Amino acid sequence: MAGLGIFGGTFDPPHIGHLILAAEAYHQLDLSRLLWVLTPEPPHKLERQITPLQHRLDMLSAAISGNPYFELCSVDINRPGPHYAVDTVRILTEQQPGVDWIYLMGSDSLRDLHIWRNPLELLRSVAALGVMVRPGVTIDLAELELKIHGVSAKVRFINAPLIDISASDIRQRVAGGQPYRYFVPSEVYKIIHERGLYGLE
Fold first, then answer.
1. Domains in the chain with CATH codes
2. Using CA atoms, how far apart are residues 184 and 167, in angstroms rounded to an integer?
3. Model's pTM, two decimal places?
């Protein structure tokens, strides 16, 4: 059985960079499905104002609709926060035992993995870490191995076009009246426009 991917994030908003990376991960890691795990309360963003969950949920649902291999997963929505990756994977494993989980993350997250909650437990609970290279981020796997034993063997780098688009940049563009139309899927653009999200002028 091919592995199942876990792609977690606040998706505030989901953009074409997310979709391209997810599609490459699905293809290169030979996944059977890719679960998009919307995080209501990410522990590293508790001090930032995050768009209300329902808006993000609607945008993400719209962004991934039409792809039968992408699936919205409510595992974090259905429990109180803050939401840590190790708990997310543990709950998914309890719900679907025997699955080879592939946890997707950016190279910046891999670099900081040693300061995540229970990184060794997370590492033991997944078959692999699918790592998406981010522009300007370099990883010293040998150094990371000294902090988290066994991490090198589980890393699978994903080769994808380096698209330097971020959700924070899109939010700033919307608020500042700059072009953002082609940074997001048309369905997401429509929701942002109709609901006046991100300080839309």
1. 4-193 (3.40.50.620)
2. 10
3. 0.92
